[in-house]
Prior knowledge:
The structure is a single chain. Helix content is 52%, strand content 4%. The protein has 16 helices and six strands. A hairpin with a 3-residue loop joins strand 1 and strand 2 (91-93). Helix 1 runs parallel beside helix 10, helix 2 (31-49) runs antiparallel to helix 4 and helix 13 runs antiparallel to helix 14.
Amino acid sequence: MIPTSAMLRLALGILALAVVHAASSRADVPTEDRIRGAFFGSLVADAMCLGSHYEYNAAKIREAYDGSKTLPKYMAPGEQMGGETHGVGWGSRNYHPGTVAGDQTDYGEYNVLVLEHLARIAPQPFTVEGFLPDWKERITKSWKQWVCTQTKQTYQQLFAKHMPIDQVGGNSNAMALRFAALYAYTSDESELLDYATKTMFTHRETTAKLGNEFFARTTFRIIHNNMSPTQAMVAVVEDMDNPWIRQKVQQAMDKVAEATDPVSDLSKEDFVDDLALTSMARLWDVGKSEPIKVGKASPTEGTLPGALYFILKYETNPLEAFQANAMVGGDNASRSIAIGMVLGATHGVSLFENHPIWGREKLNHWNHCEDLLRRLPMLEKVKTGNRELWSCNSPIRGRLPESTPTLLKSEYYTAMRLSAVLKNS
Length: 425
């Protein structure tokens, strides 16, 4: 159990944040909007990072964007920075050479890939075995983004070394959130967590999995329990009962309190968000060209509290949070999925769907993904006569054995889904 003193300290942080963000819990947002908000929030936040992804110099990013503290538009990789970003430890390059402004980084594209797979198999259970053919096809034939080390390693393990699926993956502690579409697939928290864990089959390290679980559960409770981000994350901390998670959540809360305290030195800094993230981190000697601070890099020990920092500080203004994260740089795309899911679920998709700069007309994957989301069990429209009914909040129960022929499974699940919708109509 978490020590009483630690819970008291966490509670005090919650109270302080609750006063600041009392209006951020929006019980009037429909569940459908929260589900779509979680998915498209992750894509919007990620696409904002494409231009500055892996650039670790926040001052360089601001200078490239004409001295602005906000992002003016979606940018292509390294746009207005000579076409490259400086990934400390990996050197300067275009990390996403096949992409254009409004596209996704590899983090966002993984979420699109999982959505495409879910739309193809719906409403059958998500399995790694079933996902692998779609994963292999995309990685080898139409992947425009950076291919992360763990993806490369897992590919070699599977198709060169022919290792068993339950033994593949690397020990990277990088955060790999790929499950934003799952909120349109199931309304069962345990089932969602199981599927979310399977989407990160390329990663085996403990803290990466803890971060995955924390954000999966937090977003779920915002969507289905009408909780604010602060309420949801505290409930998840209690339920996970993990000292490392508790410490990281507390670290983020403490840093937000410091950064927003008008008498603190940090709050008076011009690059306050950049300094806040790096001040939460240790130096990480990556064994490449130079050491970096983990707070702006990929490891979950930095990306988890870093993402929470932006969520809590900008809880009432998601688009400001997305932009602030992009302007800090580093592995901002890793943080963006968590920030986008949580704040998108909190405020709903309507906040940015028709935005003239960040909405469906500017995000290249929007219309493609919208069509696919509508095919998933939680959002699918089922026509009954002259009516169209949303199957939102209609979970499908009674899974069939994997040995059941595909055609029979498809017919069974379709009947189950229709039955659930009609029952709720």
